[in-house]
Design goal:
- Keywords: Membrane, Transmembrane, Transmembrane helix.
- The chain crosses the membrane at residues 32-55, 61-82.
- This protein has 113 residues and is mainly alpha-helical.
- It has a domain at 25-98.
- 57% of the residues lie in helices and 9% in strands.
- The chain is built from 2 helices and 3 strands, in the order βααββ.
- Bound molecules: zinc ion.
- The site of zinc ion has 8 residues, from loops.
Length: 113
């Protein structure tokens, strides 16, 4: 199994959609679906808090509670994702191996395995 372009050895390769055969998608764990927006919300709340500390009299108590809640959700989702990680890896490997056609983003070289 090659994860590099055979022409320029770049690791920046992407699978090419195969016509006719059903696309095999890796099974994305629910914890990851949950974790990504949670991390975004946390980052947003932290940024708003920092902005309020700089430009105002500090973050309001509602914002502080929201930030703490978002942080706790992130920790829980992170923990769940950590537990799902082995299954996710296997699923991703299956997806990578089922993919026969690849394209290099560096030199546009296409090849089949
Ligand atoms: Zn290449």
């Amino acid at each position: 199994m090659q994860y590099r372009c055979p022409k320029c050895q770049s690791p920046k390769i992407m699978p090419v959609a195969q016509a006719g055969s059903p696309a095999v998608r890796p099974v994305v764990p629910k914890s990851l679906v949950f974790l990504i927006p949670a991390v975004f919300i946390l980052l947003l709340l932290v940024l708003i808090s920092i902005a309020m500390w700089i430009f105002g009299d500090g973050a309001g108590s509602t914002l502080q509670v929201a930030t703490v809640v978002a942080f706790i959700i992130c920790v829980i989702a992170g923990f769940l994702f950590y537990r799902d990680l082995p299954d996710f890896k296997i699923s991703m490997q299956g997806f990578m191996q089922s993919q026969k056609k690849w394209k290099c983003r560096e030199c546009n070289h296409e090849w089949e395995i």
